[in-house]
Amino acid sequence: MPKKLTRTQAAEIFRRLRQANPAPKTELQYKNPFTLLVAVVLSAQATDAGVNKATPALFKVADTPAKMAALGEEKLGNYVKTIGLWRNKTKNIIALSKLLVEKFGGEVPQTREELESLPGVGRKSANVVLNVCFGQPSIAVDTHIFRVSNRTGLAPGKTPLEVELGLEKVIPEEYLRHAHHWLILHGRYTCLARAPKCPQCPIADICLYKDKTPAEPPKKPKKKAAKKPARKLAMTPKLKAARPKRKGARA
Ligand code: SF4
Predict the structure, then answer these.
(1) Could you identify which of 23, 35, 63, 144 might form a hypothetical disulfide with 30, taking C-beta atoms 3.0 to 4.6 angstroms apart as the criterion?
(2) Global pTM?
(3) How does pLDDT run across 102-114, given as a tens digit for each residue?
(4) Is residue 142 among the annotated active site residues?
């Protein structure tokens, strides 16, 4: 069995994913490129839902690099304490905000190299910002995309970078812009890590994963329990005495 899907099979996968969700979007809440960058930094090893709980209040008071730098580490920490690794993330966000003000005129840069030069921003985060804010066909390989790409055979690889380059090769250009979100959403809601929902998966016939979750056998209709005959009570002397006496019955 081939371990890797062909470009034609990849095209069919994305045709179906696009049909189900023509314009997929990030689930992170943001107001502008800067707030997306902050949300992405906060989302490392945390869930989007957890980040979204904390950021609306934060972005009300600090939605530009200058305001964030002025807020300072301590106050920023109060907004994001519920998010894992918040101390380190807080340091990075204040440092990158200062750098954006000093070096980039308060704007989020639009190249991967410049984005990666910011504290706390790696290739994956840079790719998210490039894709979501600047419409570039970049693919940020997170845990979901890594799993889906390996299981399906779309772009098997041992490292996120290997998977990213494999995806760029196999995905037809027309799907590249949104491939990132289609794959994340597929991994988050269908191709789950522990129990993938293969029986409901729209690409199951193409996917090469050999340990697919089997469909549940149809449930057998329950047999109707036969009615038990009412149990006759043994006539103990006590019951006999308690029985109402019939009229005319002999004592
Ligand atoms: S068939 Fe199963 S393993 Fe393959 S992509 Fe769908 S959910 Fe994932």
Answers:
(1) 35
(2) 0.81
(3) 999 999 999 999 9
(4) yes
